[in-house]
Amino acid sequence: MKLLTDKIEREGIVLGNNVLKVDSFINHQMDPQLMNEIGLEFARRFKDAGVTRILTIESSGIAPAIMAGLAMNVPVIFARKRKSLTLTSDLYTSTVYSFTKQESNEITVSKKYLLKEDRVLIIDDFLANGQAAIGLADLVEQAGAEVSGIGILIEKSFQPGADEILKKGYRLESLARIASLQDGKVKFAADREVQSIYS
Ligand code: G4P
Ligand code: NA
Ligand code: NA
């Protein structure tokens, strides 16, 4: 998505060879006009997926998810992160390990807001190791619902998450794909659809 890759080129800051800081439009300050366009783009890409609900995770997934929910006219739920939890029977719970932070978090959603009839679009800001997205998909499956796809703003294609998700058979749509962050420079990868024509 050109609007997003342009914004990353103008405002993204590379830290080390692994991390892209996007505090000026996603992770701290947010750009509502860009988020609106991102919502419309997800709606376009998933228009035939029969989505009935969007699932994201606090905090940075919420803005793009709500804009996609507006564009698709479906409700949006965000999973909550908790350090540890006494078992509660009205929650679906999954454990997500963060390689970046080297800690585990429980993520939860209320059983009230994920129904077995649902076709769920999972949205998140970053895809790195894929643990958050896989945890969200696990919550959907615990509900007996279907994962209709995973929509990501920024995929770091040089990390294992994208392959893990594709290996599990989920449909993955990433609006920007980053091939590398070497030497302080963002190198983008081609869209997966475009790429597959040639591979
Ligand atoms: P994973 O879910 O793909 O396995 O990711 P990982 O544990 O490695 O990432 C932990 C946190 O760091 C996540 O945010 C994720 O969005 C974020 N993250 C990963 N790589 C980058 C990056 O290159 N740039 C930025 N800006 N963030 C990155 P979180 O802790 O869940 O926080 P929140 O922002 O959603 O509250
Ligand atoms: Na996130
Ligand atoms: Na984040």
TrEMBL record:
<dbReference type="InterPro" id="IPR029057">
    <property type="entry name" value="PRTase-like"/>
</dbReference>
<dbReference type="GO" id="GO:0000310">
    <property type="term" value="F:xanthine phosphoribosyltransferase activity"/>
</dbReference>
<feature type="binding site">
    <location>
        <position position="20"/>
    </location>
    <ligand>
        <name>xanthine</name>
    </ligand>
</feature>
<dbReference type="GO" id="GO:0046110">
    <property type="term" value="P:xanthine metabolic process"/>
</dbReference>
<dbReference type="GO" id="GO:0032265">
    <property type="term" value="P:XMP salvage"/>
</dbReference>
<dbReference type="Pfam" id="PF00156">
    <property type="entry name" value="Pribosyltran"/>
</dbReference>
<keyword id="KW-0328">Glycosyltransferase</keyword>
<feature type="domain" description="Phosphoribosyltransferase">
    <location>
        <begin position="54"/>
        <end position="167"/>
    </location>
</feature>
<feature type="binding site">
    <location>
        <position position="156"/>
    </location>
    <ligand>
        <name>xanthine</name>
    </ligand>
</feature>
<keyword id="KW-0963">Cytoplasm</keyword>
<comment type="pathway">
    <text>Purine metabolism; XMP biosynthesis via salvage pathway; XMP from xanthine: step 1/1.</text>
</comment>
<dbReference type="InterPro" id="IPR050118">
    <property type="entry name" value="Pur/Pyrimidine_PRTase"/>
</dbReference>
<protein>
    <recommendedName>
        <fullName>Xanthine phosphoribosyltransferase</fullName>
        <ecNumber>2.4.2.22</ecNumber>
    </recommendedName>
</protein>
<dbReference type="InterPro" id="IPR010079">
    <property type="entry name" value="Xanthine_PRibTrfase"/>
</dbReference>
<comment type="subunit">
    <text>Homodimer.</text>
</comment>
<keyword id="KW-0660">Purine salvage</keyword>
<dbReference type="GO" id="GO:0005737">
    <property type="term" value="C:cytoplasm"/>
</dbReference>
<comment type="similarity">
    <text>Belongs to the purine/pyrimidine phosphoribosyltransferase family. Xpt subfamily.</text>
</comment>
<dbReference type="GO" id="GO:0006166">
    <property type="term" value="P:purine ribonucleoside salvage"/>
</dbReference>
<comment type="function">
    <text>Converts the preformed base xanthine, a product of nucleic acid breakdown, to xanthosine 5'-monophosphate (XMP), so it can be reused for RNA or DNA synthesis.</text>
</comment>
<feature type="binding site">
    <location>
        <position position="27"/>
    </location>
    <ligand>
        <name>xanthine</name>
    </ligand>
</feature>
<feature type="binding site">
    <location>
        <begin position="128"/>
        <end position="132"/>
    </location>
    <ligand>
        <name>5-phospho-alpha-D-ribose 1-diphosphate</name>
    </ligand>
</feature>
<keyword id="KW-0808">Transferase</keyword>
<dbReference type="InterPro" id="IPR000836">
    <property type="entry name" value="PRTase_dom"/>
</dbReference>
